[in-house]
Amino acid sequence: MTVVTWMLAGCGTPKRVVQPTPPTPQPMPDTVAATPWQRPVVPGIRTEIRGVWLTTIFGLDWPRAKADSESGLRYQQQELLGILDRLKNDGYNTVFLQVRLRGDLIYPNNTEPQSNIFTRSGRAPNYDPMAFALQACHERGLQCHAWLVTFPIGQGKRMRVKHRDWCLYHRGEWYLDPGLPEVRSYLADLVADLVRRYPTVDGIHMDYVRYPDDADRFPDQKSYERYGGGQSRIAWRRNNITDLWRRIDKALTPYPAVQISAATLGKLRLLEQGVRPHGWTALESVHQDVMQWDREQLIDMVVPMMYYKDDLFEPFLLDWQCSMSHAAVVAGLAPYRMAEGAMAARWKPADITCQMDYADKVQVQGVCFFREEFVGNRYPMMRDSIRQRFCRPSLLPALPRGEKFRTTAPTDLKIQGSRLTWQHEDAKQPRPTTYRVWATVLRANGSMESLLLAQRLSETAYTLPTNLLHRGDEIELGVEAVNALGVATACLRSVKYKQP
Over the chain, what HEC string results? Predict the structure, then answer.
């Protein structure tokens, strides 16, 4: 396949946008607009995922503090709240929270043990970390996706006691055998159980949905002989991984609004021309047939781990974008490279910002950083680069599957004092709707200004900010209802105000 590489002309640093301080507001009478409302165009707003992987294994990102006492528990919770406050303030909109580590979970479950990372004793903490994290993310307008590591189980002692025949030892670690139908059903049931327990979770994010490194030596001969059915070993393995997605898709039939995503290898497949030898790929090396997942619409979003630079980054990201017809592509970026390897080989923040610019050029649906520590306070130059990039508001992408349950339009917009209210029939929605409030400020000299006032509101009411009402001679307000997959339905009638 011939791939045309889109090269960057430069990597300038975007400037912060400083808004002027508005005058003191005065109340204004309300009138109802006579023409259908359309959402205004607000310069600088991006529609994209701005994500981060928040790692819990070994407490790498969280938790660092231990919850063996009441004070320790509070400190552990405040530690997470501090991370989420920073992510919100820096402009992120999505957190991929690691909830399954190596056959253990951060939440209580009857099937697998709860992780011992929360206390020094290894016992479960005196609260539900998953429920706490979900609520905290949503209070800050952040999506929370449950990130599960799939087949690796580490030393897997409990799993080996319960299901020794499911477990294979490879390169110093135990793995569940993807070739066993009962393993794939087990994992699909685990996903469905998570969504039943936590119905407000925004998405399921599956990691390591693949065969392991050095897959040629993976000892699955017995399951291949039993279930191969005459297929080549490569075709059988690819179908095993795709079959897991089919089972997850079926298990989540009662929960159609939960987003489904995959973290995959960074290189989709071998490219024939214009690229130096590049080895490890999703399709050929670890049997991730992501194009088949996309054709069957089994995933909503793919997050390839693009942890390379230059000609090992750009043509492969372009290939992802050209190869997916249904799934959104979000580029997984590697600020952790700033701390890896010899000093001369370590990446600089400019390497990441250039990759973000290239992701813009090929119009993927966002970026995600591995991992939270490397975009935080320990790396202020990296953090500042991202903050400048994310200084304008963002909208979450509308995922195609969301069209299947588009919500009705908000109606009956009214204003009393500074409080805007509306009505909304939500009976068809499988999960709660959120709302966006938009404003167009009109001035007597003919100039206008468009604003996104709020988004991810859960209530059918919004108090207008005091700095809005005196910004112009007339203000038009409209509301969108947004379903769980980002598809919006606008109100038909706006509310318009004139300055007395």
Answer: CCCCCCCCCCCCCCCCCCCCCCCCCCCCCEEEEEEECCCCCCCCCEECEEEEEECCHHHCCCCCCCCCCHHHHHHHHHHHHHHHHHHHHCCCCEEEEEEECCCCECCCCCCCCECCCCCCCCCCCCCCHHHHHHHHHHHCCCEEEEEEECCEEECCHHHHHHCHHHEEEECCEEEECCCCHHHHHHHHHHHHHHHHHCCCCCEEEEECCCCCCCHHHCCCHHHHHHHCCCCCHHHHHHHHHHHHHHHHHHHCCCCCCCEEEEEEECCCCCCCCCCCCCCCCHHHHHCCCHHHHHHCCCCCEEEEECCCCHHHCHHHHHHHHHHCCCCEECEEECHHHHHCCCHHHCCCHHHHHHHHHHHHHCCCCEEEEECHHHHCCCCHHHHHHHHHHCCCCEECCCCHHHHHHCCCCCEEEEEECCEEEEECCCCCCCCCCEEEEEEEEECCCCCEEEEEEEEEECCCEEECCCCCCCCCCEEEEEEEEECCCCCEEECCEEEEEECC
Q: What is the 3-state secondary structure (H, E, C) of 271-291?
A: CCCCCCCCCCCHHHHHCCCHH
Q: What is the reported pLDDT for 92?
A: 98
| CA dist., res. 312 & res. 307, Å (int) | 9
Buried b (16+ CB within 10 A) or exposed e, 249-283: bebbeebebbbbbbbbbbbbbebeeebeeeeebbb
- Cβ neighbours, 10 Å, residue 150: 23
Q: Distance between CA 396 and CA 50 in Å, rounded?
A: 9
* pLDDT tens per residue across span 100-156: 999 999 999 999 999 999 999 999 999 999 999 999 999 999 999 999 999 999 998
Q: How many CA atoms lie within 13 A of 195 on its CB side?
A: 24
The predicted model scores a pTM of 0.91
327: left (phi over 0), alpha (psi -120 to 50) or beta: beta
Q: How many CA atoms lie within 13 A of 410 on its CB side?
A: 30
* Residue keyed to tokens 């279930």: 227
* Amino acid identity for residue 371 in this structure: R
Contact, 176 vs 166, CB < 8 A? yes
| Neighbour count for residue 308 (Cβ, 10 Å) | 17
pLDDT tens for each residue of 369-405 = 999 999 999 999 999 999 999 999 999 999 999 999 8
Q: Are 454 and 437 in contact (CB under 8 A)?
A: yes
What's CA 14's distance to the chain center, in Å? Answer: 24
